[in-house]
Amino acid sequence: MTATPLLAPVQLGGLALRNRIVMAPMTRNRAGPGDVPGELSVDYYAARADAGMIITEGTQPSRHGKGYARTPGLYTREQLAGWRRVTDAVHARGGTIVLQMMHCGRIASHHNKDADARTVAPSVLRASGRMFTDTAGLVEFDTPEELSIEGIRATIGEYAQSGRAAQLAGFDGVELHAASGYLPMQFLSTGTNHRMDAYGGALTHRLRFVVEVLEALSEVWGAGQVGLRICPGNPFNDLRDENPVETYEALLRTVAPLNLAYLHVIRSPDATLDAFALAQACFAGPRVLNDGFDFASGNAAVAGGAAAAVSFARAFIANPDLVERFEGGWPLAPFDRKTLYTPGADGYTSYPRHAR
Ligand SMILES: Cc1cc2nc3c(=O)[nH]c(=O)nc-3n(C[C@H](O)[C@H](O)[C@H](O)COP(=O)(O)O)c2cc1C
């Protein structure tokens, strides 16, 4: 390893990273009609290709998985072609890019979705809270339909199908978003999963959906190309779990034989547990740690063995050249909150590189 741990290359399963500075997934709501990533997204990701690995914004594997306005999908020919231009541009600059697969489940509004799309969840429990829509402003979350067993199988099939599309689109791998209160986490957690069948009730049943999705993606990709993102104990999006330590210890021990490329762990200030310690105790493979790191604390996490790599989200928004800025000890530019999720180039591709 070089004197600067974050700048050293690393292998995460089958993914070769030229440094350990990972761009964390960020929803930026810039997809065009048909939820297709367009030219702006090509420029946005290409400008950040110096990262050891880019994890894309959460991308719905089917129309049912969409929750928010203007998020991209990967289940149509047009979406595949759009993503192909993104991955080509990142690869042309020597980068590595994986697709984050995000099925929002009940954290959705029909105002943001196609007319024939459904809002589904493990149980018929509406999340309290509201979300932004382009057509109706702030609205309550949908009341979800309970997925039948056939519906669960179909949903797992959608992940697999979208995983295949990700291969055709030239991605280097995929990451399952099982954090932030979306569908996989809804299955894992006692507050959102009131089922009493093979996918709910007993702890092993609550784990089943996530395990089966990971198995399906591993079949498509090989597990060395599949990552998993978790945030144990995070109450975000009206999520509650009676015993998150037990849930996530069991989950990580259950997925261990798959030999996934990496585990991406977010620590949440709102959680009552130590997510990093839990991950270190229960997941022997490469760990990518997230939330609130800077260059110094990221280097310390790698040097101390807690992390194989560290991911940065907000720092990448206004600093497309984050890796160079870290290397040069240059100041980081602040980002503008108002343009985080608005359409267009402003606040997306408008942030300049540091003057040399
Ligand atoms: C604008 C924005 C959008 C985000 N969208 C996603 C997302 O699509 N998927 C995801 O897993 N996390 C998402 N996150 C969470 C980040 O990946 C990350 O966990 C969080 O910002 C903490 O990392 P940081 O301290 O480096 O910013 C988002 C965060 C921000 C600021």
Task: Report what the structure shows.
The strands form 4 sheets. This protein has an 8-stranded parallel beta barrel with strand order 3-4-5-10-11-12-13-14, surrounded by 5 helices. Helix 1 packs parallel to helix 2, helix 3 packs parallel to helix 5 and helix 5 runs parallel beside helix 6. The chain has helices at residues 39-46, 77-92, 149-168, 183-188, 203-221, 244-255, 275-282, 295-303, 314-317, 322-328; strands spanning 10-12, 15-17, 21-23, 53-59, 97-101, 120-121, 130-133, 137-140, 145-146, 173-177, 226-230, 262-266, 287-290, 309-312. The two termini are 27 Å apart. It is built from 10 helices and 14 strands. It has 356 residues and is an alpha/beta fold. Helix 8 (295-303) links the parallel strand 13 (287-290) and strand 14. It has a single domain (5-339), classed as TIM Barrel (Alpha-Beta Barrel). 31% of the residues lie in helices and 16% in strands. It is globular, with a radius of gyration of 19 Å. It binds flavin mononucleotide.
